[in-house]
Fold this protein.
Amino acid sequence: MLSMIIPTLNECSRIRSTILSIREVLNGLSHEIIVVDNGSTDDTVCLSRELADLVLVDDSATIGGLRNIGAKASKGNILIFNDADVLFTWEWRSEFDRVSE
């Protein structure tokens, strides 16, 4: 199982596209999407709750701390740390298929 961990802070303009690109590219593969927010004051958390499998909030953590929080909550045996503004492409899928064999 792949665990996608995305730290966020005020990413409402990007998070939807990022999560949807992950869902599309990983369709058919066992995966989860975890968003770990750093106390956004925009709609990042609300949008993420609609689209991600798990949304956690910690407004005191560093970006590394947010990644660690997501890793601890993950169920996957492969962890992938993605930024909120990085869209997945089909080239990613071919690499996931190769690694998953």
The longest helix spans residues 15-25. The mean pLDDT is 94. The chain is about 40% helix and 20% strand.
